[in-house]
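Posted in: Protein Modeling Q&A

I'm a second-year student putting together a small comparison for a lab meeting, and my supervisor asked me to include a predicted structure for PDZ domain-containing protein. I've never done this before, so apologies if this is the wrong subforum. The sequence is pasted below exactly as I got it from our records. If anyone can share the C-alpha cell output, I'd also love a short note on what stands out.
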Amino acid sequence: MTGDNHGSAWWSDALRDPWRDPGTPTRLVTQSPVPPPPEAPTAPPPARGARLSLVVVVAAVSALFAGTLGGALGFVAASRSGAAAQTVLGRATASAPALAQRPPDSLAGVINRVMPSVVTVHAEAGQGENLGSGFVISSDGYVLTNDHVLGDAGSDGIRLTFSDDRSAAARVVGREPESDLAVLKVERADLNPVELADSDAVAVGDPVLAIGSPFALTGTVTYGIVSALDRTIEGNDGAGTTRYYAAIQTDAAVNHGNSGGPLFDVNGRVIGINSMIKSLSSSSDESGNIGLAFAIPMNQASRIAGEIIDFGKARRTVIGANLQTSYRGSGGGVRLADVDEGGPAAKAGLRSGDVITKLGDHPIQTPTDLIALVRRYDPGTVISVTYRRDGASASTQVTLVADAN
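Accepted answer (user: helix_wrangler)
Welcome! Here is the predicted structure, written out as C-alpha cells:
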C-alpha cells in the first residue's frame, strides 16, 4: 500500500472499525475517562429596561390568573345559589313600543281599533251549528252578516260572541237571500259600530284587511289587496235560492267562518262583506283559501241593510226584462226574451230580441253578468246600455227601478 499516510489505514477512525486491515497487529487500547462538561457560562444580569418588562409580564400573568380564578369562584357561588348566568343570544335592540304606543294609523293600531266591532255568529241550524262572522253597523245593536251564515236557524237560535269573549243572544231583523245579506239585532249598550267606506272609490291594488272567525279561530286577521272589481258570480244555497254577486275580489286569506265578516281598507273602514271563495275542492268540508275570495260591495250592502231595518225587507234593482238564458251569440251579450211594458228597458227603447253587450263600462257575456251588475246599483240609477239590433250597435240610457215585490 503506498501513499502519503503509509503505515496507517486510509479510512478514518480505523482503530474502531471492525473492517480494518487484517494485517494490522492487534493493540489493546485503554480509553481515558471522559472529563465532565464545562460549567455553562452564567448569563450576565439583564439591563434595567429588560427587568421592567419582566415585571410587567409577571404582573399581567398574575392578573389574568386572578381574574380567571375569581370568575370560576363566582360561577361556582352563583350556581350553588341558583342564579347562574344564562347565555344571551342575538344582539340587544330597542324594545318594540307597546300597543297603546303604536301609531293609530299603523296596521296594529287600526286592527286594535276595529276589532271590538267584529263578532262571531253562532246559528243553531238543524242538528248542528253554523258558524260565521258579522260586524256592528249601529250603536243601537244592528249587526250585518251573510244570509247563508244563518241557514235555517230560527230567530231564537242565534248567539253573538264579541272580541272581549262576552256573548249575547241576537234576533233576526230581516234577510235578503238573493243578495246573501241578513241583519241581526243584539241588546248591548257599549257597542262600537264600524265606519263604512264608499266602495265605488275602491281601486284594484288597494290594500285590505279581512277579520273574522275562520274555522272558529276568532279574531283572525288576514292581509291582501283588491284583486278585481265587479266580479260577477252566481251561487246556489242548495235549497233553490240563487244568489248574485258583483263582488270585490281579494287575495286576503278567507275561509269557512269568515263569511259575513268585514273587509276593511287600511284606514279601518269597511269596503265589503266577505261572502264567497273559489276553491280547488267541490266539497265544502275540504275547500279552503287559494287566494280567490269575494266580498259584497259595502254600498250595495248598506242600502239593503238600511231597507231591511226600515221596512223589514229590501228591494231588488231591476232593468224590466226577462233574459233568454240559452242564447250564445258569437259576439257575446245577453238577448232579451221579452220586455216589461212600461218598465225601464221599454221606456229606454229596448225591445224583445235586442242583445245587451255592455252595462255602463262593464262588458256583458252571460245573464249572471247582467243580473248581478244591475242589482249592484241603487234603484233610480241612470246607466248607459249598449246593445245590438239587426247586426247594428246602438246605446241608450236606462233608469233602473226597484222590483214590485
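A couple of things worth pointing out for your meeting: The CA atoms of residues 324 and 337 lie 5 Å apart. The domain at 108-186 is CATH 2.40.10.10 (Thrombin, subunit H).
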